[in-house]
Amino acid sequence: MEDQAKVEPGRVITGIDGLDKMLYGGVPATNQVVVSGGPGAGKTLLSFNIVYNNAKQGIPSVFITLDETPQNLVRNIKKSFKEIAKDIDDLIEKKLIVVEGENPSTRLQSKSDSPEYTFGNIISDIESIVQSSGARVIVIDSVTLLKLLFGDEFAYRKAILLLTSNLHRMGVTTFLTVEMQSSERKGLRFPAEFFLFDGVISLYQEESEEKRTLVAEIIKMRGSNHSWLAAPYEITESGINFIGIE
Known about the structure:
Blueprint lengths: L10 E2 L4 H6 L4 E2 L3 E6 L5 H14 L4 E5 L4 H11 L4 H9 L3 E5 L2 H6 L5 H19 L3 E5 L2 H7 L2 H18 L2 E7 L19 E10 L2 E11 L9 E6 L2 E4 L4
Parallel strand pairs: 3-7, 3-8, 4-5, 4-6, 6-7
Antiparallel strand pairs: 1-2, 8-9, 9-10, 10-11
Helix pairs in contact: 6-8, 7-8
């Protein structure tokens, strides 16, 4: 993992060597980056890996789960990343990693609160968590739930604009996962709201000779140049590994 002290000023590393090389040294600080992909692409795992790598460098980081409870999230992450499971526990105990969230059904089943009120509470919760933890890197998993919360496309886009504005005001670097309908590159269609964010990292699958290959591509990254090549990656017990990136 790249040493944070050697990173170009004004950038935040992902700590995933091949991905940082594709990003030409990391993500510009305070950028908001969408991590998109279909089922099984590893969006949550890659995003948690970024939180873990920054926490290992002593940078307080937060993972906010809107799709499952914090307990289930941590349990599932440790099942995938078995070799670093103990490190994950240690970093959580030291509060270098903070995992927050709630049962997602409570967000959608509450009939007494308007979507706007519920969304306002989500933003307020995020701000409180960032302030109390001193986090510089956060993940929101996943923004897809917000679209379900609003239903109306116009209201949803207004909410996304409000979210991006507040994240910039907090001064954090944010990764937001988004579920895509297709898991293959040829079927991907990027919604217009993606381009309200500073960056988009797309994860998808390629099929060749009955073999499935996971592939990552940086679609955009505001404030920085980046590689335009697609790169294969794998999910290992010690984290995400990009293959063949020099």
